[in-house]
């Protein structure tokens, strides 16, 4: 299976800051790939370079087998882009927007009209009539924006923080749309700050920090990298958290404490030994626990773990 | 990409602007009425302007026509800034369309608006007593020069919009357009002004266009030879700002 997106040593500089600092990425055809990272990690720059809006300063990037710098037109024929801000004409209505974009994709006047109606129907916007996009809700706008990026059935679809600023319902709608596209074989690259979103939608996730990929893998692979399972203990009384850290058979240096949630959490190696050890120690010390759970690490923890490590490595260098 | 796409894409982008007109008829009407209001106001309130031989209206109308074209810079700049500020330009640039069509559409729509505006102004000018003595050929030549001037303003507007980038900057230019517009011979002849001011006014490209239009319409204040200057000035401005604007547009990918 060939890759739909390949970047090698991709660089983009703004002034003296490297927005992309030698970024390597491979996205398999037909997969959903999430690019996860904090603000300023280079996610948006990556999407803008891959969608031919920005020229890279170094390295190489191919989308659908075409070089983004040398064959921009060929790339544009094969991609759809949903940027961070709605890329729509706010004064026109939904149909006018889609029809205009259809014409600009050179579908021809009649097919552009037919396609516009089709997409309005598919995204639940058929009843919007002459209402200008300006008057749309955030969720409607996002749906129309997504419809516009699908006019030509792109091979590769870029979604830059597709659910930022949406309410839960809008988010669910976008997620459903992404799932159905992925089911139909479209390659999707999406950036997000939400770990849950990456976890829910993506086949593979790459963590980006400081313009490079710090980790790449499936959600499970990434979770395994923080050192396996964790134990969570929720106490009835937050005031006993300090005592619990000292008493429990856990390595105090690895325990994290969340006072608001009356929670302490630590990585464990031997699951059953840790569980029974903790329960026994709690009983012996007379500490009242509401909950004791063994679980896989969350992507949040993976993310903090890896990006912090990345920073430490850089500072040491 | 074939040349045919350049044409159809430009037409699609022009249609987009026309659809905006249909959406906002009030804005279109206000755009047309505002210069007419200025014309009538100056014609009746200021009346026999300073240092003008003959009918003031014959002097004023060509000046107002040129001034209206100059103010077009502001309209162009607002429209381009608004587009750049919204994400829609990103969608255009990520599509397999002719790159220049966005700018061509803008130009076509703005030129059409200006032609319309000129027609209305000329009609109102006649209604308040403007008489042209240069015949239809003279009037057509005058309209040609005015539109050429507008075309130069258009590309300055596009360039400024791309340099300034943010809608807040439009305000600064809006404020500047007025003194530059009024520092011309649109309302009064430079000989009636203090020396330095008169010189500035005489150099203003707007003044050359206004004088040439007066000349072609056989009005007072027209001086033979200005037709040439009224053609050369806009062309010179275009030589500078057209490539600058196009380069700026291409550099959005930097």
From TrEMBL, chain A:
Pfam families found in the cross-reference section: ABC_tran
Cellular compartments annotated: Cell membrane
Primary enzyme class: translocase
One GO BP annotation of this record: doxorubicin transport
Topology relative to the membrane: Peripheral membrane protein
GO cellular component: plasma membrane
MF GO annotations: ABC-type xenobiotic transporter activity; ATP binding; ATP hydrolysis activity
Residue span(s) of domain ABC transporter: 5-235
Keyword list, A-Z: Antibiotic resistance, ATP-binding, Cell membrane, Hydrolase, Membrane, Nucleotide-binding, Translocase, Transport
Tagged with keyword Translocase: yes
Enzyme Commission identifier(s): 7.6.2.2
Family of the protein in this entry: Belongs to the ABC transporter superfamily. Drug exporter-1 (DrugE1) (TC 3.A.1.105) family.
Protein name per Swiss-Prot or TrEMBL: ABC-type xenobiotic transporter
Organism: Streptomyces griseorubiginosus
